[in-house]
Specification:
Blueprint (H helix, E strand, L loop, with lengths): L3 E2 L8 E2 L3 H15 L1 H7 L4 H22 L13 H21 L5 H12 L4 H16 L6 H23 L5 H20 L1 H6 L7 H7 L3 H5 L5 H23 L10 H19 L13 H17 L3
Antiparallel strand pairs: 1-2
Length: 311
């Protein structure tokens, strides 16, 4: 196939190539970008692994579009940054339609088009992920947790709902599991990255919580670490923990084996939250991460629990 299209935030021109080339491109993106998800994906069969990499590459690409400070595509020059980004997101909305119609024009959507033929991923869920990324173009603050929840649902829970179609499940409760886990993951990311986000002018912590604990946006931008900040972050971490617990309650016994990869991600992100708590949320000077050996250990633990019911 010789078609090419510029749908990249870096305006690179990519040839579609073969389907195997498209999946290899998605696997490369996943390896480079996803240290947490990488260990979970390795628990899957080759077909499911490829499908998850195609889905992850799609989501990663959407995030990259929203995070770009400048765009090099000459066709978009002379337009404002927000307008340029919206044009690219709309181009991917159109590309998603081509993907489901079987006429993809980009390596990622080429692989994704094959994936959605193999697994029943709803087009509306992938379109909703693009809507969630677009939220980052239109707002930088959230007044209430309800508003933040809507953002988290679009950028994380919808990803989970797509993932479980690849993992496979028998009990409909798996959908609630995916939604709650997505909220928990995104809240954990927000707590880990709160300082970095503030420096970019983004405050995901609800304004009502900032007021409640007497910690201001200006304090956050100045990276003031005090008792008010710790109390604020403790409240948010407790909220994230409740979503992890809700997800676990919604994991039906008959789906323990099929959801092993999801459980690996739950254990890794939950342990990341534990680490944030143990460090008393001192996130301004050092990014909190887990060593690769610990992630591999947690992935094995999820596999053992799913298949043998121990550990």
């Amino acid at each position: 196939m010789e078609q090419t299209i510029e749908l990249s935030p870096h305006a690179s021109r990519l040839s579609l190539g073969s389907l195997s080339d498209a999946y290899a491109y998605c696997r490369q993106i996943t390896r480079k970008s996803s240290s947490n998800f990488y260990f979970a994906f390795r628990l899957l069969s080759a077909e499911r692994h490829n499908a998850l990499c195609a889905l992850y590459a799609f989501c990663r690409f959407m995030d990259d579009i929203a995070d770009q400070p400048t765009l090099g595509d000459s066709s978009l020059q002379g337009k404002g940054k927000k307008e340029r980004l919206e044009i690219l997101l709309n181009a991917w909305r159109e590309e998603l339609r081509y993907c489901y119609a079987g006429n993809p024009r980009h390596p990622i959507s080429f692989a994704l088009s094959d994936t959605v033929q193999r697994f029943p991923i709803q087009q509306a869920h992938l379109a909703g992920i693009i809507d969630g990324v677009e939220m980052d173009l239109s707002r930088t603050h959230y007044r209430t947790f309800e508003e933040l929840y809507d953002y988290c649902y679009h950028v994380a829970s919808l990803v989970g709902l797509a993932c479980i179609e690849i993992f496979g499940y028998r009990n409909p409760s798996a959908r609630d599991y995916a939604v709650d886990l997505g909220i928990a993951f995104q809240l954990t990311n927000i707590l880990r990255d709160v300082g970095e986000d503030a420096q970019r002018g983004r405050v995901y912590l609800p304004e009502e919580d900032l007021v409640k604990f007497g910690y201001t946006e200006q304090d956050l931008q100045k990276e003031i670490y005090n008792d008010a900040f710790v109390r604020l972050m403790t409240c948010e971490s407790n909220r994230a923990r409740e979503y992890y617990n809700r997800a676990l309650r919604n994991r039906a016994p008959e789906d323990h084996r099929s959801l092993v990869a999801a459980e690996a991600m739950r254990l890794i992100y939950s342990r990341l939250l534990d680490t944030l708590v143990q460090r008393q949320f001192n996130v301004f000077r050092l990014r909190v991460t887990l060593p690769s050996s610990r992630k591999a250990q947690l992935a094995f633990q999820a596999w053992a629990q799913g298949w043998f019911g121990f550990l």
